[in-house]
Amino acid sequence: MPEISVTAPSTVEPLTKNQRILTYAQAGVEGVREEMQRNPQIFYIGQGIGTRGGNFQQSRGLWEKFGGQRVRDTPIAERAQTGIGIGAALAGSHPIVDIVFLDFTLEAMGEIIQQASTIHYISNGRFKVPFMLRAAGGGIRSTGPHHSHTFWSFFAHIPGLKVAVPSTPYDVKGLIKSGLRDENPVIFIEHKGLYNTKGHVPEEEYLIPFGHARVVRPGSDVTVVCLGSMVQKSIDAAQRLEAHDISLEVIDLRTIAPLDKESILTSLAKTGRLAVVDEAYATCGMAAEIAAIAATEALDELDAPVVRICTYPAPHAFSPSIDAYLVPSVDRIVREIAHMMGKQL
Amino acid sequence: MNITVSMPQLGLTMMEGTVVTWLKKPGDSVKKDEVVLVISTDKVDMDVESTTDGVLQKIIVDEGDTVPVGAPLAYIEVDGDEVDRDQPVSAIVTCSPQPSLVDNEAQGASFPANGSTALHAQTASSQFEGRTEHASASPRAKRRARQLGIDITTVKGSGPGGWIVEEDLPKAAAENPSHTIGNVDSRRQRIADRMVESITTIPAFSVSVEVNAEGLVALYESLREPIQSVTGVKLTYTDLLLKALALSLAHTPIMNSIWRNGALHRHPTVNLALAVATDRGVIAPVLTDADLLPIQQLVIRRSELAEKARQGRLALTDLEGGIGTLSNLGMYHVDRFEGLISPGQTFILAVGKLRNRPWVDTSLVIKPTIILNLSVDHRVADGAIAATLLERLAESIEQSDQIAGDFERK
Amino acid sequence: MGAIESMEAPQKSKERQPSGSDGELILSLYRSMVLIREFEMKAREVFRTGRMPGFIHVYIGEEAVATGVCARLRKDDYVASTHRGHGHALAKGITARAVMAELMGAVTGCSGGRGGTMHLYDPTVGFLGSNGVVPPGILIAAGAGLSAKLRGTDQVAVAFFGDGGSNNGAFHEGLNMASIWEIPVVFVCENNLYATEMPLAEATKNTNVASRAAAYGMPGIQVDGNNVLEVYEKAGEAIERARSGGGPTLLECLTYRWYGHHEGDPGVAYRPKEEIAAWKNRDPIMKLKNDSIAARQITAEDFKRVDAEIAEVLEDATRFALDSSIESESTALEHVLYSATN
Q1: How do beta strands B324-328 and A162-164 pair?
Q2: A344: distance to nearest CA of chain B, Å?
Q3: Domains (ranges, CATH) in chain B?
Q4: Class of residue C14 by CB neighbours under 10 A (exposed 0-12, middle 13-18, buried 19+)
Q5: Tens-digit pLDDT profile for residues B1-30
Q6: C-alpha C267: how far from its chain's center?
Q7: B326, B317, B372, B318: which is closest to B346 by C-alpha?
Q8: Which of A112, A126, A163, A186 is the mutation pick for testing C, counting most C CBs within 10 A?
Q9: CA–CA min distance A69, chain C (Å)
Q10: CB A211 within 8 Å of CB A260
Q11: Chains with ≥3 Cβ pairs under 8 A against C?
């Protein structure tokens, strides 16, 4: 598998002096390392995650620190990696199965959905499944049709799974630590385009609970719900729309199962308008789910129809121009939200 | 299960009501027949009682807010079996009226509850309020329209594609002063609405006459004690004037008509409203079939209504159906005045002080006289008809023999 | 890695014969097989009354495999089972009451009525679930074995699967990973010659499942799955190998199911009558009984005593299951996720 290089960093939180700056990848490593130190039952398996440190450097230094028993490279066998991880969880270990690319979790879907998500329920609570599946989704620089998938909503659809989609280094560390202390199956989906982004990451211990979105930018005209790589794009759009007197309230979901509905509804009561920006497809995705929530629980708050700003429905093309067209850009976000406000931009 | 307390329909023409005071708050227990809140409509305050024991769960409409009849006001939780959710339960709430508040200064401008035609027609069921096919409006805007009591079809939309959005609404309310908004006292506002409606929609003119009241005085003196002993009620000049007016009206049937939607509608009975002063202001209950009521019954009826008015116990049916109002300011130092016709009525008779005045017959003498001023809706009657009624009234008062009818007197 | 052992069709001279000191062992093996046999017969009976939800896959004819393997396991060893798992569950130590109640969907079942026949779970005896999919049990058992190894215990895991499972990707990936990591797991293939209605000979060019072990560099052993003493012996070796750090073994047990794939499938459309009759003549229970009586180790009365005991156990278990209540829907959303506060 070729190394994928990522573009120059952009920040979500403003950087000031005396902050401790880590990349998104480093923050993940730090979180995993701290938890592996804390809990000896955690072990880490995946392809190229041992001495190589992971395709995205997402496991760098773990093999050196914890050794080849707890940090193991596997052959190309996603189904066995996942199934064996689940079996180990049933027997009292807490495995991290790193599938590296979200796309290849498809090889292991049976184990995730038929086994991991159901066992606690169908055993009537007698077995726990403390198991984390880690993978990077989304596209960057023409990663192409087999390395760009965004189907995080598939996992959110299944009861019995928790799903995280962090967008910043701060969130990665806090959420991965929470995930590793959770004795449920956790699908931890990072974004490969964000691994080299930088942000402030406190050295001291902190956890971010699942089910708590973050209001990244308060506003009054439109509630913009986003996740992953779309968070920074939404912030950029918000800055541009300010010049046109349109004020966006940007909410980063951080986890989609559990989903922080309350934050969305509270914001919607204030603004009356809802846009969801998601790199996944609009059909049957998180944007559709959130639109349904608004229609069911906050119909009278809506001053405009809900807008879904998502990747157009085609496979992820290799061609850079087509790729740039299909995936939501800052321009498109600006245009579609301005249109919600009755302006042509 | 939850019982919904809704804005009740009180009176044929009631379209909306205002919450005046909540007497219970969420969490309070409520007993059957206990008063939960006070609402006002036009200028009548009404108690709203609970039909059930339970606990008040949630208040939906706050004090000062106006909603259409049928709109939910609150929920009361009742212990009991689960109700099929497809059939929501809504209580029919019983009410009793309270004394109203009408501007004291609007002299003679007493308005019965019926007849306000300037209010936009609104459906009784609030959940369909604003959701018409004609308005392309956001749910949020529709909700605001319901809260303001505004017909959303009258609002101009500024949203994309002409879509009506929330922002469009306060502007619309300001342009439409017949609806209550914001912090203005709603009763005062309604009175103001009616005054303006009267002045702007009813083309009124007036005719007046000074009447020799000797006969009236003599009649009064002769009836005073017998009426008192028969009815237990003190006779007033107003009673005699009411009777006289009713009889005159019965002989001038054209004047017993109302102009509505471009046509004259004759009233089958002679119903007169009487302005009553209370410590909360003037109110005008209606005496039905005033021409047919024997004097003693009229006196009793008048007395009952006046008492109810002063105690704030009038029902809306007591305020409906009048063709005209008699307003007597004779207890004050007012020789003559001109009243404003109540929307929904055809005339108002303003009566001044009965006192001795110079009277010229064949010579200048002193006699008790009373000055009457009749304001009439010109769409119903021309000057000649109005004058005819006034003339008959004057004759009735001067001759005064018809007034007592068959009643035995000294 | 060890040499590949394979055996031709078992011959009398190589059969293990019962001997004097085995009396207790024989009775306990007999007891286990009869428990399974009678349980499955009873389950079929109840199923036919229409009172049992879902559908069942009975283990009748294969009792020697579950019995022989599980007799070598400790309580804290792990078993991952299949859709045809009642035999494994009972042999591993789940009570007849708990299994029968689970088949009825009752709250007293080992999975609280939420799993049914194909999702029997019991952590107290290391039973990691029968399974509705073929053959994730291979991976689950390998995972449990890996966990034991990482935790430094000498627990062993056993994966049961059928000839059908041996042609699935999980077999390849699982055995491969177990061998490179030397996981303490035994892969037991219950080869009953048919996967649903597909004969093994049509499903693969290499019908010698044990020989596939060579592809993964692990020992592959084939045994007469209807000779419980032989299963007992060879399973014992494989389990000991795993327990002492020698890594995984593939153990192929040749056996046969008397009835169809599931209740409702008569099993005769795709199998010759003669074949079925021949295998019924090799009833593992009758074989143990007859051989032991012939060797004068156990008397017929001893066996009858066990029979009577088991009959009572089943009587009790069935009554218990039929009397138990069904799970209330008020708990429908419990246990979707684990919470420490539950």
Answers
A1: unpaired
A2: 10
A3: 2-98 (2.40.50.100), 202-404 (3.30.559.10)
A4: exposed
A5: 788 888 877 665 677 888 989 999 999 999
A6: 20
A7: B326
A8: A126
A9: 7
A10: yes
A11: A
In whole numbers, what is the pLDDT of chain B averaged over residues? Answer: 80
In 3-state terms, what secondary structure has residue C176? helix
ipTM, two decimals = 0.88
The HSE-up count of residue C314 (CA atoms within 13 Å, CB side) is: 21
pTM assigned to the model: 0.66
Is the predicted pLDDT of residue B112 greater than 60, yes or no?
Answer: no
pLDDT of residue A133: 98
Q: Enumerate the CATH 3.40.50.920 domain ranges in chain A, comma separated.
A: 214-340
Contact B59, B39 (CB under 8 A): no
Which long-range contacts link C88-93 to residues 24+ away (Cβ below 8 Å)? C88/C127, C88/C130, C88/C160, C89/C120, C89/C122, C89/C127, C89/C130, C90/C32, C90/C35, C90/C36, C90/C39, C90/C66, C91/C32, C91/C36, C91/C66, C91/C67, C92/C66, C92/C122, C92/C125, C92/C126, C92/C127, C93/C122, C93/C125, C93/C127
| Residues of A whose CB is below 8 A from B138 | 272, 302-304
Q: B215 and chain A: CB distance < 8 Å anywhere? A: no
The Cα–Cα gap between C306 and C290 comes to 15
Q: Where in chain A is the domain with CATH 3.40.50.970?
A: 22-200
Fold category of A214-340 in CATH = Rossmann fold (3.40.50)
Tell me whether chains C and A touch (3+ CB pairs under 8 A). yes
Residue B160 to residue A342, Cβ atoms within 8 A: yes
Chain centroid to Cα A15, Å, comes to 22
A46 or B149: which carries more pLDDT confidence? A46
> Catalytic residue numbers of A?
147
The rounded distance, in Å, linking the Cα atoms of C209 and B50 is 80
Q: Do A302 and B138 touch (CB under 8 A)?
A: yes
Q: Name the helix (H) or strand (E) containing B210.
A: strand B204-212
What's chain C's length in residues? 342
Contacts of A340 in chain B (CB under 8 A): 160
Supply the mean pLDDT for chain A: 93
Q: Exposure pattern of A157-190 as b/e (b: 16+ CB <10 Å)?
A: bbebbbbbbbbbbbbbbbbbbbbbbbbbbbbbbb
Q: Is residue A9's pLDDT more than 50?
A: no
**Number of C-beta neighbours around residue C120 at 10 A:** 29
**A310/A297 Cα distance (integer angstroms):** 23
Tell me which chain A residue has its CA closest to the CA of residue C338.
A184
Contact A300 B140 (CB under 8 A): yes
Rg of chain B over all Cα atoms, to the nearest angstrom: 24
Q: Which amino acid is at B410?
A: K
Query: Considering only alpha carbons, which residue of chain C is nearest residue A67?
Result: C150
Chain B, nearest residue to A302 by Cα: B140
Burial-class residue A300 by CB neighbours within 10 Å (0-12, 13-18, 19+). Answer: middle
**CATH classification number, A22-200, choose in 3.40.50.970, 3.40.50.12280, 3.40.50.150, 3.30.70.2740:** 3.40.50.970
| pLDDT value of residue B281 | 65
Query: Rounded CA gap, A59 and A32, in Å?
Result: 8
The answer to whether B146 contacts chain A (CB < 8 Å) is: no
Given an 8 Å threshold on Cβ–Cβ distance, is B160 in contact with A339?
yes
| Cβ–Cβ under 8 Å, residues A88 and A122 | no
- Shortest Cα–Cα distance, C302 to chain A (Å): 38
Domains and CATH numbers, chain C: 31-331 (3.40.50.970)
Asked if C140 lies within 8 A of A81 by C-beta distance, the reply is no
Give me the total of CB pairs closer than 8 Å, taking one residue from chain A and one from chain C: 150
Measured CA to CA, the distance from residue A316 to residue A93 in angstroms comes to 37
Q: A92-106, B363-377, C12-26 — which is least confidently predicted?
A: C12-26
Q: Is B195 buried (19+), middle (13-18) or exposed (0-12) by CB count in 10 A?
A: middle
